[in-house]
Amino acid sequence: MALISGFYADWKTxxxxxxxxxxxxxxxxxxxxxxxxxxxLEQTAKMEFVYAASTVFIVLMAIGLLVxxxxxxxxxxxxIYLQSFGLGCDCPxxxxxxxxxxxxxxxxxxxxxxQDSLAFLYVASIPVESAASVYMxxxxxxxxxxxxxxxFAERIKNTTNMLTFYxxxxxxxxxxxxxxxxxAGFFFAVGVALRAFPPTRGAGAYLMAAAVGFYLVLPFSYxxxxxxxxxxxxxxxxxxxxxxxxxxxxxxxxxxxxxxxxPPNVENLACGSSSFAKLEEAxxxxxxxxxxxxxxxxxxxxxxxxxxxxxxxxxxxxxLIAVILTMTFILNTTNLFGGxxxxxxxxxxxxx
Length: 352
Fold this sequence. Notes:
Blueprint: H1 6-36, H2 39-84, H3 99-132, E1 135-138, E2 141-145, H4 150-195, H5 201-229, E3 238-240, H6 243-250, E4 255-257, H7 276-288, H8 290-297, H9 303-333, H10 341-351
Antiparallel strand pairs: 1-2, 3-4
Helix pairs in contact: 1-2, 1-4, 2-5, 3-4, 3-5, 3-7, 3-9, 4-5, 4-9, 5-9
């Protein structure tokens, strides 16, 4: 677990230190107010002592939630992930160490197919762009251009731009998740420290709820949505190979994206493409593989159509739904983490 490593111990120490200091300061204020016979200060110090003591219990609750709850959710997520690839929960492979790691694995499946598609498009663009760039003059005009395959060249450019955009969004999400994975505990400790001071008590409670929400609720919400809505191992997008033995060898389920075959020896067409013989050879190769290209680019039933729908679901809709559920959790648990003592009970009722 990411937070049960050395960094986990660090944020736990900071949180306990902040809570302990607030209890100590409140106790010293009570002693000082009684020594100086300041009744108003004594009442305020007693109230702050109650807040500080509640902070200690909240820290203990959060530690128990992260240690016990995270282990349970991670084991459940592991079983869901393996079953989505047709593997049983008894398969000894452990694909990811924590919830955020599983969230990245779910998003990585269509992204891997997108990267393989970009490699296919790069190879296919050699004969397509070469043949499409030819202009054949007839009667001082240009009625026939590109051997009639200009549409393939345009589709290659549009598809490359769309896949590049989704891959860029994927890496942006991965970096954000890595930040949350390593610094959620630190921000929880900062929230504990802010909760010790009356002016920042509400902000501290909100920061504590946000740290727990983004570390646990966000990835688990996405995994639930993804396991229901996304075809990771079934359908016509990928093929799972090797079973549990291959999963043990590779550390995770092994899958192959169902791409059409690349025309052979198309790399040789890049050299000397200005000659008419090479262009004629390119047109012949494209004509031979026209059906495969049509199946690849057909947005209704082709591979690109299925991949785009999967990318939109996994990179756009899934994270959006997970963020909405996370913000709902944060708003309903901010009072549970205690800006006001009476509001803790109300926040618990809302959470239930």
